[in-house]
Amino acid sequence: MTTLATQVERFSVVIAIGGVPVRINTTDASFLEMLQKRYAGFVSDEGSAELDFDVDLNPPAGIDREDVRVTQRAGRWLLERGDFLAEWEPAMRRGSIRQTANPYSIDAVLRIVHTLVLAKQGGFLLHSASAIRNGKAFLFAGVSGAGKTTISRLAPPDATLLTDEISYVRKQGDGYMAYGTPFTGELAKLGENASAPVAALYLLAQGPENRIEPVAVADAGRELLANMLFFAEDPELVHWVFQAACDFVHRVPVRRLTFMPDARVWELIG
Fold it and tell me: What tens digit of pLDDT does each residue of 106-130 get?
């Protein structure tokens, strides 16, 4: 008796965010096309990747939770939410994702994995808009409604928008670099795949005038931590994230920016 084995074709795309290339493998050509469109500008032509994930487009069963849970056991990370179940082994630099064919689940998994990668390197993802002007990157952090999208819309033509929602910050030498991300907010516009040294962090507040005020280091650290993205239930990584926030506010100027919806506010930024 002759057995005929069917070879399942596998498709791959490398998505490079913050200088970290991640290969996503799938057997679904339409899902691959969606990824290429969703992450346009961040798709790398390089064949090599630092991390590899195999995607199974069968949604996980039995996970009834809207929030994210990220736990580690025996060196393996487990990432859970109602719409996805992912595993990642840092030592092997490989992982797997079970989800439906939508961009929201893969977005969430990529964000979480990048926070895990960045934590011990002194970097982080931040709820903030960011832009490059005159070769320097500026971060604009705040809770929903603080003005991240507004400050992005008001940016002058010579500014390069990195993101209006989630900034990617990596430690480099004695300073920090900000990178563009495809993680969008209300503008629904991908950031530019560019990077520059971080010159300042502005804590946003909307008010009746444009003004900048200094922020005490302790207050800056608390507000930075409040806006960092971090999901892991892991004491060691929590320590590293806290240390990253402390180091950042001692190395980078942090100021409070109160502004009106007026493009002239960018005359103060620098």
Answer: 999 999 999 999 998 999 999 999 9
Model confidence pLDDT, tens digit, residues 212-226: 999 999 999 999 999
Output the six-digit token pair for 14.
């490398």
pTM as predicted: 0.92
Are the CB atoms for 55 and 95 separated by under 8 Å? no
Task: Collapse the DSSP code of 36 into the 3-class scheme (helix H, G, I; strand E, B; otherwise coil) and give the result.
Answer: helix
Spatial neighbors of 17 by CB under 8 A, at least 6 apart, are 42, 110, 114, 168, 179, 181, 182
Region label for 161, one of left (φ > 0), alpha (ψ between -120 and 50) or beta (otherwise): beta
Q: Count CB atoms within 10 A of the CB of residue 226.
A: 13
Distance CA 42, CA 244 (A): 26
Please give the Cα distance from 265 to 254 (Å, whole number).
17
* Cβ neighbours of residue 159 closer than 8 Å, sequence gap 6 or more: 131, 132, 133, 266
